[in-house]
Amino acid sequence: MPARELIRIVPLKNLFLKLINIIYPPRCPICKKFLNNSISFCRECSSNFKKITSPFCTICGTPFISYIKEDHVCESCLRKKPFYEIARAPYLYDGTLMTAIHKFKYSAKSFLASPLGLLMTEFAETWVKESETLLTIPVPLHPKRLRERGFNQSLLLSRHVARQLNTELDFLSLRRVRYTLPQTGLNKDERQKNVRGAFQIVDQKAVKKRTVLLIDDVATTGNTLNECARLLKRSGCKKVLCLVLARTGRF
């Protein structure tokens, strides 16, 4: 396409978007207030997103309630090291971010994958140092749950992360083969049993000797991430790095 035609199309597109914003002013998906410009969340809601800060576990990323500001390994990881190398989340699963995630997952607001995925990407860029060799894999949903929800929220998030980090995305090699109860409401032992044997590696060659960036939306005890990491490691994966948008609780 000639350059002058491209220049002509771009302003027309921008004009069209401006007209749409005038007719249908954008609103914050959490509180419904009108937004300025093209920001995703209003200032009040986004300022309530609770960032995870030190001290936290250097392996699973669980934050501590402590006056000591040094990061260290938590008791659970000392007793039994997870199969993954590291798990990190930028935010606590609380407040307005929890509301946004609920709308994303349970109210079919799939458009929230873009701003939430951007939050994950901005955080990942601060600690993922080997993006050129990474294989990004989302935690899969069982086909029954996928039909109920209509989409896999982890896959939508991982698409944004993989695109921005310029990594390969694989959403076929790891599969959920057993329908499980929601982890919410189960205790630690029940959560572990709930996901045991729930996943399967379909293509071992795809993950062998690779460093995997495993993506999920929320982590609680980390059992789902750990079970996926166990299978990936058993299939020859070199390292597993886990990235979630939010995690629950503090020790």
Beta-strand portion reads: 5-15%
Question: Mind describing the biggest β-sheet?
Answer: 6 strands, parallel
How many helical stretches? 10
Gross geometry? globular
Report the end-to-end length measured between terminal Cα atoms.
58 Å
Radius of gyration: 20 Å
* CATH level-two architecture of the largest domain: 3-Layer(aba) Sandwich
Top CATH class of the largest domain: Alpha Beta
Order of helices and strands: HHHEEHHEHHEEHEHEHE
Entry summary:
This protein has helices at residues 3-23, 43-46, 75-79, 95-106, 113-124, 143-149, 153-165, 188-195, 204-207, 223-234, and strands spanning 86-88, 91-92, 134-138, 168-169, 174-176, 199-201, 211-219, 239-247. It has 251 residues and is an alpha/beta fold.
Report on this structure.
- This protein has helices spanning 3-23, 43-46, 75-79, 95-106, 113-124, 143-149, 153-165, 188-195, 204-207, 223-234; strands at residues 86-88, 91-92, 134-138, 168-169, 174-176, 199-201, 211-219, 239-247.
- With 251 residues, the chain is of the alpha/beta class.
- The protein has two domains: 1-44, no CATH class; 48-247, Rossmann fold (3-Layer(aba) Sandwich).
- Strands 1, 2, 3, 4, 7 and 8 form a six-stranded parallel β-sheet that branches. Strands 5-6 form a two-stranded antiparallel ribbon.
- The longest helix is centred in the N-terminal third of the chain and has 21 residues, at 3-23.
- The protein starts with a helix and ends with a strand.
